[in-house]
# Entry
Amino acid sequence: MSVLHNIFFFIVAIGVLVTFHEYGHYWVARKAGVKVLRFSIGFGKPLFSWRKTSAEGDDIEYVIAAIPLGGYVKMLDEREGNVPEAEKSRAFNNQTISKRIAIVFAGPAFNFILAIFLYWIVFMLGSTVDRPFVGETVADSVAAKAGFQLQDEVLMVSETPVKSWNEFRLEILNHGLEGGNIQVHVRDTDGLERTRELALGDMHILEDEGDIFKRIGFKQWWPILKPEIGGVMEQSAAENAGIQKGDIILQVDGVAIEQWITLVEMIRSKPNQAMNFIVLRNGFEEIVTVIPKSRKTKEGEQQGYIGAYQHVPDEIREQLVTRVEYSPMEAGAKAVVKTWDMSSLTLRVLWKMITGEANLANISGPITIATYAGVTASIGLVSFLSFLAVISVSLGVLNLLPVPMLDGGHLFYYLIEIVKGSPVSEAFELRGQQVGIAILALLMSVAIFNDIQRLVQ
# Structure
């Protein structure tokens, strides 16, 4: 996938999220009677700008700037310059504490509203998902000790219904973040509903970077199918070698191939090494030489891959996947609950990072976000909208943190003002800004470092 593709959808995503956030400040400020001077999407040098007279008769400048990593709404304020006597009542700093709180809180609030709207669309459009079938568990793992059996279909985690493998993963994270025991309701291969209890104890499932399911011992179930090629990716090792859709792999380097996973494991073990495939094509056997490309795993090992995927018969696919969609009313209610749950989970994960119970490697920066923007956009509209909803929730939660320079920092100042009966001093606010800049710079440094580590891997 091209870098330009990722960058384009990253700019689209950030543009939408920042516009909604800043529009929240802008809309409530105007409703509160505050004079708005500028509405800017992005920072730095303006690329486009225009002026428009508002209904209140104000000349507002609208700007799209060069650096698309944020935005701002500039309002009339005595702390930033002289204000004519006739307009002092419209300056932000002269508003009541309730109005100032409403204006500042509106930015994050609009992010949550946007997330609800996006989830509503996603749930109405629906999606095809992997049904939550459990595969063979890792020996002596938490999942194995809980008694999970091959092809158990997960129905609920605690009291939360589960319809897909991804929902199962999310609910395990949500319910297992604090450790303890998790009740998982399943339907076994005999059609009987049973309850398995995951005893996580004091396990901190985000303490290490990587797949939490791997630590717990879960694998997704996949039926044993013949090693038939369902398709190849463009410019992949498979395409370069002449592997075609419909080829059945009989042997690799003299080893008979009966299962797809055997083929995958052999390819992984031989990065950048020529491998001789015997394939059955149109009833005839052919010899094909394939040189797997190499990529680094999270453990730092080189792993081979050829860019081919397995053919799955329609009858098997129908067993493995299901269609999930909701009516407008159901989708609306579910969207509100989903936004609340994701907000709560985001806040809890952040707290785990602060207390050291979650690895800082879980923090992602602009490079990772850009990659996911491109990937989800390539998958389809529903996937991209879901990505936007998640990032919008994260943006809303992060901006409410009591860190100076963020909306939550200003709200914290207003809380102090309510308690002490007067605004905080300029010296206190200046010192807070310095602390806030240091915290944000540290977080951005960690995020970018993690991004670079992922690129290297």
Notes: Residues 126 and 275 are 42 Å apart (CA to CA). DSSP finds 13 helices and 16 strands in the chain. Residues 426-456 form the longest helix (31 residues).
